Amino acid sequence: MKELLGQVDKAGVVESSCILQGAEISVSTFASRNHETVAKKAFSYVFQNVSKLRTKHDEAHLEIGGKRLSGFMLNGERVLICMSDKNTNVSLVREHIYLLKPKFEA
Amino acid sequence: MADYKILFTGSVCSGKTTAIRSLSDIETIDTDASVSDSAIRRKQKTTIAMDYGVLEMSDSSRLHLYGTPGQERFRFMWQLMMSDLVHDAQALVLLVDNTRNDPFKDIRFYLDEFRDYLVQRQLIIAVTHSDQQAHPDHAYYMNELKGMGIFTTVLFIDARYPDSVLEVVKSVLAEREPDLNWDELGQRLMAHRPPVIEEEEESSEAPVAAETSEPPEVKLFSAVSLMDAAMNTRGITGAMHLGADRKVLETNIGSMQNQAMLKTMVNLVAALEKKVAFLGHIDNLVLCGPEHETLSVFVEERQALGLCSEKELSLAVVKQQGQDLLQWSGE
User: Fold this and answer.
1) Domain B226-327 belongs to what topology?
2) pLDDT one-digit tens code per residue, A14-28
3) Helical segments of A9-53, H only
4) Mutation target among A37, A62, A86, A88 for the B interface, most CBs of B within 10 A
């Protein structure tokens, strides 16, 4: 899993990433614990409510300070979280994750 | 013949097209299309590619006037213009709409976008619409810009009046054209060209640079409300306006499911604002998926906006629409 996360981190697109399993981070490349904690709390809360309200949303983006935290739902109630610079085109981040998502879900 | 170039940029409705029309001796080339976003609050048409005009300053000097489209989604045109058509321009004129809730947010954004371009050329900040919103005034701008480390010329202009826009040109080219009779040129322009009447608003007042330096107040200038503007915006299907306390002021979102989810998102943002303020301001939270409308929350100190939009709309467009809607709204 750590190797897969290594593929998520890509210069100019994704700075760091982690996997949220339930309410805990199982594996991470985040250097900033503060951002990791915010992402964990935010996406746990958001996707719990998505499940409760049955809205079928599977992706969330939170812009805070100069960073963008993105959460992508994976199978097995896991969330792939990544952090990018706020000025990075969000489409680039999404395309990059969509390409890698099948590997995480295999 | 000396040929000069000036590039005008700035947010939607800041007066770029009007300024170029005011000065141009030729029928300006513009690429207007019907507005399909938050700019509906101010006008029916917007520039989608570029504006171009020419001012014959004298028998031996000519000025080419270029204007960028204001909307961020057309930023590819900015790059195209900077690297090609106006790579040799003498100055960048940043038009700042004084009626925006936070004009300095626009200044920071455009200076960041044009940072490399400005290395080799002059910057003029030209404040427009001060007849509708006098604050912030000139002193306030100078003070704020000084705080941002920006030392440049700030002029208050009325883009509809040729002699007013000519002051901007004079600031750029007076030293390069020492023999030019600027007063005569101004008189010629005013004599042969009536003030350009903008489609969105008409006002006969002259530009105002107010004397006090109080912080800006939030005011509504359009008959179109924030909710109406949101609903006139391409792809938006519902909106929720929230106050400083993050309580709902108004909503037209029909789906209870979407309403509940947006409130959840607002609650999350409100909680994060209190607990992790040290990480910086929360700009927005967006939730999307292939089978559901995109939900987004945009946050400012004095208000917040929740939007439901079609899932096909790109997130970049959703983001710009939310930010623009808040820039022209009051509580």
Assistant:
1) Beta-Lactamase (3.30.450)
2) 999 999 998 899 999
3) 33-53
4) A62
Q: Is A66 on the interface with B (CB under 8 A)?
A: yes
Residue B321 in tokens: 């629409």
Q: Which of B28, B7, B205 is nearest to B118 (CA)?
A: B7
Q: How far is A55 from chain B (nearest CA, A)?
A: 7
Answer left, alpha or beta for residue B102, where phi above 0 means left and psi between -120 and 50 means alpha. beta
Domains and CATH numbers, chain A: 2-105 (3.30.450.30)
Inter-chain touch A65–B260, beta carbons under 8 Å? no
Q: What is the pLDDT at residue B123? A: 95
pLDDT tens per residue across span B101-148: 889 989 998 998 898 899 889 999 999 999 988 999 999 999 999 998
Tokens found for residue A89 = 């085109």
Q: What residue of A is the nearest CA neighbor of B289?
A: A57
Contact assignment for A50 to B288 by CB distance below 8 Å? no
What class does CATH assign to B2-192?
A: alpha beta
Q: ipTM score here?
A: 0.95
A33 touches chain B (CB under 8 A): no
